[in-house]
Amino acid sequence: VKESGRAGFRFHVPRKEVDLLSRMRLDHDMRQALAEGRFRLHYQPQVELGSDRVIGAEALIRWRDPQRGDISPAEFIPLAEESGFVVAIGEWVLREAVGQAAYWLSRGLRMPVAVNVSALQFQQAHFVETVAEVLREAMLPASLLELELTEGVLLGDAEEALKRMRALAGLGVTLSIDDFGTGYSSLGYLKRFPIQRLKIDRSFVQGLPNDASDVGIANAIVQMGRALGLQVIAEGVETEAQRDFLAQAGCHEFQGYLFAKPLRPDEFEQRVRPRRHV
Ligand code: C2E
Ligand code: CA
Ligand code: CA
Ligand code: CA
């Protein structure tokens, strides 16, 4: 049992071994959910220190099944990655998020959206073309799209990954490294690759400001980011103490429950401009 602030207590149940049949069922239901349009996106505000301005929105997939209830992406995305179905899901997410940003723009709200891209999706031969096409169809300026990549995209052919990132950066899309520090790749890529932003993983934010290793890691990431001229955003910021520590460390962008949970698009819009009622 681990204490988790205001939320009370969280129980870490050892992950039950999931048998083949239930995995197959989940995979089947997931495919059906996509076909029947049952996935939704929620948007979590990214906030700038000081101004408290919302500077972006991370799109996070949501799935409510009539029988199963809410199923966490932490549960079905890994399965979709194994089966390859994450490519289809990811394409839907990309279209939906880009469409949302275009809709907001049409209503005068210029809000960059960040989309999670799984390594398998990134490695598809047509990925860059797909991104370009989706932006074109929605007539969204590429500068309003950010792609969150994990260090896993570099696991395969790093030269090919570099080519692809350059092509995406050439379109004007922002690239960030998600869950930074949890991967296994060398840091050399930070210098070579056209990355604009690092996201400090929640696991390193959790123990701030008391856990010595989290303190060391968070400081190191912020300093490295600064040395390379990258933006650094911290995810999973839940307490003022975490925010204050990160701020003094030099991190000026935050995402986490302290600021806002992932919100429905209409809630997000309300939140960003609460005065628009007419
Ligand atoms: P992630 O990309 O690291 O996303 C951040 C996760 O942390 C989200 O969980 C978000 O709801 C949660 N979170 C945000 N602020 C806080 C906080 O203050 N405290 C805590 N405890 N959690 C916070 P979510 O939405 O359940 O997503 C889990 C993971 O599933 C994501 O981790 C991402 O890896 C994956 N995922 C979600 N949506 C997509 C998607 O559209 N495509 C892909 N490929 N993966 C996705
Ligand atoms: Ca993410
Ligand atoms: Ca993340
Ligand atoms: Ca994370």
TrEMBL record:
EAL domain spans which residues?
23-276
Superkingdom of this protein's organism: Bacteria
Q: What is this protein called?
A: Diguanylate cyclase (GGDEF)-like protein/PAS domain S-box-containing protein
